Structures are given as C-alpha cells and as structure tokens.
Amino acid sequence: MTTTSYEAPPDSxxxxxxxxxxxxxAGVAVVTADAxxxxxxxxxxxxxxxxxxxxxxxxxxxxRASSAATLERAQTVxxxxxxxxxxxxVKLVAASGTDRFSDQTRWNRLPTGEPLFTGTRSWLRxxxxxxxxxxxxxxxxxxILETGRAETDEPHRPLVYQNRTWHELGTHSYxxx
Length: 177
Prior knowledge:
This protein has about 180 residues and is α+β, with helices and mostly antiparallel strands. It has one domain: Electron Transport, Fmn-binding Protein, Chain A (Pnp Oxidase, Chain A). Helices cover about 15% and strands about 40% of the residues.
C-alpha cells in the first residue's frame, strides 16, 4: 500500500484545519475557576474523559482566552456539563466582553470556594494535576474530586456545538444503535 503525503502551505493548513473542525460536533461544557482574583468562566468544547480510574478529564484553553491566566494558576476547577435547557448560561459565558458573574442569582460558590453556576444539570470539581503547554494553548489534566447532579424528571437533551451553531441532540437525531 502506498501512502501519499500532502503538505499544504502554512496558511492553507490553518484554514483547512479550522474548516474541518468546524464540521466536527463537540459537546459543550463550561469551566469555572478562581485563583484568588475573582471567578472566571469559559465555554470548552475540548472536554474529554481521560481515565475512569482514577477519574480524570482533559480540556484545552487558548492562550488568547481572557480566562487563560487565571486557569493557569487555579489549583481546582469546576466543569459544568450542560444540556439544551441551559443554553442561556452557555451563551452568557460564550459572549466576549461580558461580566459572567455580575448576576449573583446565576451562581454561587461551592463550600470549597469554586464558582458554580446554578441550574447546572451536572458538574465535576477537580484538581488540575498536569498542564501541558503547546504552541498556542494549554492542555489541563484534571483529577475529579467531587461530582454533582441535579435531580430532575426532565430528560437530558445534550447540547452540541458544530459549525458555529448550537444543536440539541434527542430522539430526532438517532440514526442507529
């Protein structure tokens, strides 16, 4: 079998990379932290399970994110896993130039001090155990210390981000089992 390697010009590679990943759907999470100067939050579509035992997850943060410096110093974070019914909070966090924590009714602090958005269906609090610096982002490895899940009769409708738009998964999106 012959493989052919293709090397696009640098600018073209970046544009193609972005285009390909715009078409790649991703789950939506919000990461919050406070390293002592006040809470920060960001929408992360890069959250992924890393290990079940010990329970660990990973997410990346662009160096250009306004919360990057705080997340670099934070010892712990809270990862909120949102569904379609929490889209309003996700859009608040995703909007640039907004004070995500000005409305005191939308969030509180866990007994351990981390910011937690109220109305969150499920969340994971963890300690950042490793950071890997890349060219323009940092990968955070988080060991889970505590979890929370809201009791609700409402079915979970996962929220997905794809091609700069929000999508809701449900029975209408099933294609196979």
